[in-house]
């Protein structure tokens, strides 16, 4: 689950990580009030208005702007809220902005030049440990840095038994070229950041940029936070931060029905038991000349109610021209699944796309007979390739 | 011969008296697997499915000499169950539980690292040595005895592959479901290595999916080993979009080197017989085994 920037910053701040302060606003008037309050609290003169959507590259799409007075706060907030923000990470239609973060200006002049760094915390799947990845090249696209100047990216792997150790925090600060007060502040920053990551059961922190201000303070100016969905049961407060407006509505509905569904751009819907087999089925659809319209894992109990729910989800996508059901019956008997498909089909009554049902495993023969004798416009198959051939035929 | 589990394995079930544990332990016993008991804290001293229930894994090791465990404990407590098994001296820890927090698995995998045990999973269908032991949730009848080893991240796709292999008139030595989570115990490379070194296994099927480097590591190991045993490979998820988790928590394309295409390229370069169609796994095995 992803958090908005303002939510991620609140999380960081609660663990003692210094952040660029801000107040979230739902409309232009709230933005002005937020700006006034922020000036009282922080003394900031200028304000940064930042679109709150789950997508990176917001600045490039015009979703982050500087306001030098309250009139500008009002105008800019009014422009950004309600816009469909297009960034390199969104679709061409963009993402609707529902709220902005009004943030303090932290690039004020002072004794030294402000400097930007990059820092993330994530799992190293190869070693099974968390690591801190950081770079002197802040504020830039890290993939570009990795490609062009890989020697400017550092990693520090953390032993789960000890957590981040003081020497590791110092190493980070040294590698970033810091000294004096900024050095000390960075060691505090990275230590608190790592603790926040572990204790919130996050799966990704990306802070880009981390800023050294002109008066040598280290702070998070942005925060991308992803939480481990499997750990949300012990973080009810964080789970409550979920913003359903940022998610695909069909995927949300499927999730509520207990179906694992990912919306894709193709024309052949599919319903499969098991994630690996579901991906393999998508691949087979492509090889048969179609494009998968979705990933859908119905799970272990493919009974009539679940099959019907899955049908309804798949058919919400108007691009679907055919549906392939691929179930390997193990513990679940194929005849039960076949009966489920028939019952669901009859209940729905208005399925207008061809359906190919491939059932293999326990009682596959009985299942095929059930389908073939049902009188419904459903094609049956037992072999994987046979199912692909039938998909090809109906698309032709 | 076989790997990981056989007819002499002394198997306990952690989470024995829960609904999942009860159902699958029953199926395992029916298959003929040597289940010697189970563990449910607080229910020690009872009898379940005609087998003794223990409060702790240590007791089960002491009383019935358990050396293998299968874990059905709910996600919030599963990592603890893995560490308990390792501490008690269990040698093979097979974890079926899906949805264990990554933070818990980081701790568990670190804890067991220097202990003399092997973790399989989590989020896997388990391990089966046909005719000897089914330590998992797979449908036993699909796996006929034979000379092909299977390593896979997925459940039903493993059954599919086994079914295709059996329909070619061949059979299975051991099928190992390694699981689809970001952190798993036995890696693709380790499982392939076990099977390549098993004298009864004449060919290996290696089924992977998008995300991570496990298949590439296995492919590089295979090439370096110089083994003449053929390996047939398939990677699911060629059509999966980047940045989206496809069911399995670990099945997510993070960069350009963990796509299906990138993995297949490395596997081919290392001498693995890669099929693009999941419908051709069985046929390819028959072809390379000759």
TrEMBL record, chain B:
Q: Name it.
A: Succinate--CoA ligase [ADP-forming] subunit alpha
Q: Where does CoA bind?
A: 17-20, 43, 96-98
Q: What class of enzyme is it?
A: ligase
User: In UniProt terms, what function does this protein have?
Assistant: Succinyl-CoA synthetase functions in the citric acid cycle (TCA), coupling the hydrolysis of succinyl-CoA to the synthesis of either ATP or GTP and thus represents the only step of substrate-level phosphorylation in the TCA. The alpha subunit of the enzyme binds the substrates coenzyme A and phosphate, while succinate binding and nucleotide specificity is provided by the beta subunit.
EC numbers: 6.2.1.5
* The entry's keywords: Ligase, Nucleotide-binding, Tricarboxylic acid cycle
Q: Entry's SUPFAM superfamilies?
A: NAD(P)-binding Rossmann-fold domains (SSF51735), Succinyl-CoA synthetase domains (SSF52210)
On the tree of life, the source organism's domain of life is Bacteria
A GO MF annotation of the entry reads: succinate-CoA ligase (ADP-forming) activity
PROSITE patterns given in the database record: SUCCINYL_COA_LIG_1, SUCCINYL_COA_LIG_2
Outline the extent of the CoA-binding domain.
4-100
**What reaction(s) does this enzyme catalyze?**
GTP + succinate + CoA = succinyl-CoA + GDP + phosphate; succinate + ATP + CoA = succinyl-CoA + ADP + phosphate
Taxonomic path: Bacteria, Pseudomonadati, Bacteroidota, Flavobacteriia, Flavobacteriales
Catalytic residues? Answer: 248 (tele-phosphohistidine intermediate)
Tell me the residue numbers annotated for binding substrate.
159
InterPro entries from the entry?
A: Cit_synth/succinyl-CoA_lig_AS, Citrt_syn/SCS-alpha_CS, CoA-bd, CoA_lig_alpha, NAD(P)-bd_dom_sf, SUCC_ACL_C, Succinyl-CoA_synth-like
Q: Which Pfam families does the annotation name?
A: CoA_binding (PF02629), Ligase_CoA (PF00549)
Q: What does the record note on quaternary structure?
A: Heterotetramer of two alpha and two beta subunits.
Pathway field: Carbohydrate metabolism; tricarboxylic acid cycle; succinate from succinyl-CoA (ligase route): step 1/1
Q: Which family does it belong to?
A: Belongs to the succinate/malate CoA ligase alpha subunit family.
């Amino acid at each position: 689950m992803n958090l908005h920037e303002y939510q991620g910053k609140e999380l960081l701040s609660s663990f003692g990580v210094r952040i660029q302060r801000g107040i979230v606003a739902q409309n232009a008037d709230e933005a002005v009030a937020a700006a006034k309050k922020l000036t009282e609290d922080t003394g900031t003169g200028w304000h940064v208005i930042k679109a709150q959507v789950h997508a990176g590259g917001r600045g490039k799409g015009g979703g982050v702007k500087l306001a030098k007075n309250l009139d500008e706060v009002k105008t800019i907030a009014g422009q950004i809220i309600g816009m469909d923000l297009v960034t390199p990470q969104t679709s061409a239609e963009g993402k609707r902005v529902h709220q902005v973060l009004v943030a303090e200006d932290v690039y004020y002049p002072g004794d030294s030049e402000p400097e930007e760094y990059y820092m993330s915390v994530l799992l190293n799947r190869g070693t099974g440990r968390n690591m801190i990845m950081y770079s002197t090249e802040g504020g830039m696209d890290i993939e570009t840095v990795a490609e062009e100047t890989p020697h400017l990216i550092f990693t520090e792997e953390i032993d789960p038994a000890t957590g981040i150790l003081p020497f590791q925090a110092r190493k980070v600060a040294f590698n970033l070229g810091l000294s004096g007060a900024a050095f000390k502040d960075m060691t505090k920053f990275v230590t608190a950041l790592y603790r926040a990551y572990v204790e919130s059961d996050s799966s990704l922190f990306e802070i880009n940029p981390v800023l050294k201000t002109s008066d040598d303070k280290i702070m998070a100016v942005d925060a991308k936070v992803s939480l481990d969905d499997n750990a949300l049961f012990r973080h009810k407060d964080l789970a409550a931060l979920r913003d359903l407006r940022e998610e695909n509505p069909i995927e949300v509905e499927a999730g509520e029905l207990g179906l694992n569904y990912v919306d894709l751009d193709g024309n052949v819907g599919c319903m499969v038991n098991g994630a690996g087999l579901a991906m393999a089925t998508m691949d087979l659809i492509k090889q048969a000349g179609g494009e998968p319209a979705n990933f859908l894992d119905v799970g272990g109990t493919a009974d009539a109610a679940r099959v019907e729910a899955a049908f309804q989800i798949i058919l919400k996508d108007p691009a679907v021209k055919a549906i392939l059901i691929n179930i390997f019956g193990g513990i679940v008997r194929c005849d039960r699944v076949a009966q489920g498909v028939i019952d669901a089909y009859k209940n729905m009554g208005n399925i207008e796309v061809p359906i190919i049902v491939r059932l293999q495993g326990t009682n596959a023969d009985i299942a095929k007979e059930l389908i073939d004798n049902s009188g419904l416009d459903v094609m049956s198959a037992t072999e994987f390739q046979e199912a692909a051939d039938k998909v090809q035929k109906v698309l032709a | 011969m076989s790997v990981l589990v056989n007819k002499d394995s002394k198997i306990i079930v952690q989470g024995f008296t829960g609904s999942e544990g009860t159902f699958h332990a029953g199926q395992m016993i029916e298959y003929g697997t040597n289940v010697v008991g189970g563990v449910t804290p607080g229910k020690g001293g009872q009898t379940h499915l005609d087998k003794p229930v223990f409060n702790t894994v240590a007791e089960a090791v002491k009383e019935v000499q358990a050396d293998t465990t299968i874990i059905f404990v709910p996600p919030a407590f599963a990592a603890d169950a893995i560490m308990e098994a390792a501490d008690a001296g269990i040698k093979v820890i097979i974890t079926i539980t899906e949805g264990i927090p990554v933070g818990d698995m980081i701790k568990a995998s670190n804890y067991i690292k220097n202990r003399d045990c092997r973790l399989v999973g989590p989020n896997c269908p388990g391990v089966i040595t046909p005719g000897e032991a089914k330590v998992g949730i797979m449908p036993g009848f699909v796996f006929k005895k034979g000379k092909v080893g299977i390593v896979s991240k997925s459940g039903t796709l493993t059954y599919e592959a086994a079914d295709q292999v059996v329909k070619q008139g061949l059979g299975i030595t051991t099928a190992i479901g390694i699981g689809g989570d970001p952190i798993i115990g036995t890696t693709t490379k380790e499982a392939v290595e076990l099977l390549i070194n098993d004298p009864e296994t004449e060919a290996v099927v290696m089924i992977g999916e998008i995300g991570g480097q496990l298949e590439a590591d296995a492919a590089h190991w295979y090439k370096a080993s110089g083994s003449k045993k053929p390996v047939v490979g398939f990677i699911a998820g060629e059509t999966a979009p980047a940045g989206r988790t496809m069911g399995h928590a670990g099945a997510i394309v993070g960069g350009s080197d963990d796509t299906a295409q990138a993995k297949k390229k490395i596997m081919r370069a290392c001498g693995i017989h890669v099929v693009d169609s999941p419908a051709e796994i069985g046929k390819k095995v028959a072809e390379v085994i000759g």
